[in-house]
Amino acid sequence: MEMRDWNILLVDDEVEFISTLAERLELRGIPNRVVYDGESALKAVAENEPQVMVLDVMMPGLKGLDVLQRIKVEHPAVQVILLTGQGKTRDGIDGMRLGAFAYLMKPLDLEELIRTLAEAMQARSGEQS
Amino acid sequence: MKKTLSTFLGDARTEISSPVCYQVLRRKIVALMAIVSLLPLLSLAGINYYEHQSAMTAEIQAPLRALVGKAKHSFELFLAERTSAVSFIASAYSFDELSDGANLKRIFQVMRREFTGFVDLGLIDSTGRQISYAGPYNELIGRNYSEQEWFHQVQFKGTYVSDVFMGFRKFPHVVIAVRHTSESGKSWVLRATLDTMHFDRIIAAMGLGADGDAFLVSRNGILQTDSRRYGQVLDTLDFPLPPTNFEANVQTIQDSQGDTIFIASALITDTEFALVDVKVKPTVFNTWYTVRADLLFIFVTGVALIFLAVYRVTSLLIVRLQESDAQRLGAIHQMEHSQKLSSIGRLAAGVAHEINNPLAIINEKAGLMRDILNLQPECSFSDKFAKQIEAIQRSVDRCRGITHRMLGFAKRMDVKIEILDLNAILLETLGFLEREAQYRNVTLETELAQDLPRIPTDHGQIQQVFLNILNNALAAVPDGGHIVLRSWSENDQIVGISIADDGCGMSEETCKHMFEPFYTTKKEKGTGLGMSITYGIVKRLGGELQVQSKLNEGTTVTILLPKKLVEG
User: Fold this and answer.
1) Least CB-CB distance to A17: which of B352, B364, B413?
2) What is the pLDDT of residues B310-359, one digit of tens each?
3) Which of B11, B153, B315, B565 supports an S-S bond with B160, CB 3.0-4.6 Å?
4) How far apart are CA B565 and CA B415, in angstroms?
5) SS3 for B498?
6) What is the 3-state secondary structure (H, E, C) of B395-462?
């Protein structure tokens, strides 16, 4: 699948960070949508199910792991890449147990994120086939 | 008692901080235990000694008293019989009959047959002149006794038994004199003389033994018979006779020869003298002294053994206490250290998280700027902008490294265990520092065991351990110093790695605090986290970290790691 056909949802309460990341992905031809909290993320997934979701763990309101848990129940095909500011913490390990595809640490290496997105896409294709 | 004991032993919590507290405690416990165990023993020994001595004294005094009482009665009987005989003759015969010398001799012979001990018999008229005489001293006829003491006494008392005296015959003798007054009013005295040899016989019959002494002595201290210790008859006793009465009485005194003696005495009825029996105390107490010496030896040996046992047991207790205190203090220090690390870890994790978010924004913004610049390469400032963006991203990378290390300190980095060759990691790490060592002329020597087994460990973390220790060693050595790296197989379960330098070394104070977070001797050059992180990593990998250091001589850091993975 070409990158321009990807359907990515970015979720983070850090507006400056996530919007800049979205812009950089777009510059590389990767279409994406951005929401800034857990509730909006669930709504966005319900409206238009993304192939991959990039989800921050630490958010006010609905926490990243809660969102992940619900997504995996309601939309199990969505691959979730967790973002954490605390390295490979307990949250990351718990997220992997809950079905996250990977977890990455802030600050992000964009190339690593794109590589992980591609792997998640491949994994999703593999699961669907 | 509890309060007294605790006051005596002191407050352990206060004293534990003092370096001499264990010696003080040992002394106090030894003293207390010695007092508690020896006091009853001493009391028992004292009472036993006193009782035994009293019993011994009583045992000696009782027979002595009985013996003197018995002998006193013998003397009294002897004298009473002879006095009665003289008195009977004085009453039975008239003055005229007794004045007849032949008649008196006949009567005297009958007397001697019936009663032993008489030497002679004489009749003395009221003027004191001897009228007739029967006995061996015929020259005494006509002798006048009016000036003699005994004559006055018999005139006064009627019957008189004299002390032993020499008299006209110059021979020790005793006089028994009886005054008789006839119906016509005529008064005369019948006098008999007794040989004192019979006194000696009665004394000999007391069965005194080789070391005993018994004698008669007058109230004014003149010996009436021979004494083994104090002289011949009529000598003066050279120490005062203790108070004596008619009942046999035993007293302990010191005689003129300086000996302590048991002296038993009793006055003889109707006489002016007393019977005395003497026993020297050391002689009669010989058995007791032997027993006492044996008891003293047993007592002293017992006391010494008790002291020895108390001292040994107390020392053992103190050593155990010291070990226990050391373990407790060690555990407390370790717990404090763990708590410090845990607090610092939580702080570091929080700080890292808070910094990572804005850092992520900076990173993305800089990335976007570069992306835009890449889209418009014709911009006249593109080179300059590119350099600035690169600088920003380098700084972000640096900050990311710092926050990752902080999170690593907080134990939030995963450990990736692989089977690795420690020698290779050591040499690889050494490679990072070779340039600086070369520049400062520091010799890096390796003595690595070629057959060192590969062990399961985390490459990155063990490398960080080696790097931290090597960095410290390099900082400690002067230019031209030496650093020696060694590796060896300690035993079946452990491998050892040591890094030794001949640098400035550490004080005891520094050694005590070196694993505490933020403790540094490098001032602004160090974070104070290096050794604390190192310690945490080694512990997490199931190993031990040991440091030996001497100020101005150098430091050796030894890492002991398990050959097999440790659970947990």
Assistant:
1) B364
2) 889 888 988 888 888 888 887 777 677 666 666 776 777 778 778 888 99
3) B153
4) 12
5) strand
6) HHHHHHHHHHHHHHHCCCCCCCEEEECHHHHHHHHHHHHHHHHHHCCCEEEEEECCCCCCEEEEHHHH
| Whole-number percent of chain A with pLDDT over 90 | 61
Which pLDDT value is given to residue B15?
44
Computed over its alpha carbons, how large is the radius of gyration of chain B? 59
- CA–CA separation, A95 vs A79, rounded Å? 12
Question: Is B365 at the interface with chain A, CB within 8 A?
Answer: yes
Looking at per-residue confidence, does A96 or B442 come out higher?
Answer: B442
d(CA B377, CA B389): 14
Asked if the B13-290 domain carries CATH number 3.30.450.20, the reply is yes
- By residue range, what is the domain housing residue A94? 3-124
Strand partners, B554: B550
Neighbours of B476 (CB within 10 A): 19
Decide if A129 is inside a domain.
Answer: no
Q: What is the nearest CA distance from B346 to chain A, expressed in angstroms?
A: 11
Q: What is the pLDDT of residues B378-395, one digit of tens each?
A: 777 788 888 889 999 888
Tell me, what CATH number does A18's domain have?
3.40.50.2300
Residue B244 pLDDT more than 50?
A: yes
B383–chain A nearest CA distance, Å: 20
DSSP 8-state code for residue B58? H
CATH architecture under which domain B415-568 falls: 2-Layer Sandwich (3.30)
Task: Say if CB B360 and CB A108 are below 8 A apart.
Answer: yes
Closest by Cα among A115, A119, A107 to A20: A107
The CA distances from residue B103 to B100, B106, B135, in Å, are 5, 5, 13
How many domains does the structure of chain A reveal? Answer: 1
How far apart (Å, rounded) are the C-alpha atoms in residues B236 and B340?
101
Q: What is the pLDDT of residue B414?
A: 47
Q: Shortest CA distance to B393 belongs to which of B365, B422, B416?
A: B365
Nearest residue to B499 (alpha-carbon basis) of B563, B541, B448: B448
d(CA A46, CA B300): 100
pLDDT at A80: 94
Q: What are the CA-CA distances from residue A3 to residues A23, A121, B155, B367 (Å)? A: 15, 10, 170, 20
Q: Return phi, psi of residue B340, to 5°.
A: -60, -45
pTM of the model: 0.45
| Alpha-carbon span B196 to B159, nearest angstrom | 19
- Assembly ipTM: 0.87
- Cβ neighbours of A58 in B, within 8 Å: 353
Residues in B 328-357 with any Cβ partner in A closer than 8 A: 349, 352-354, 356-357
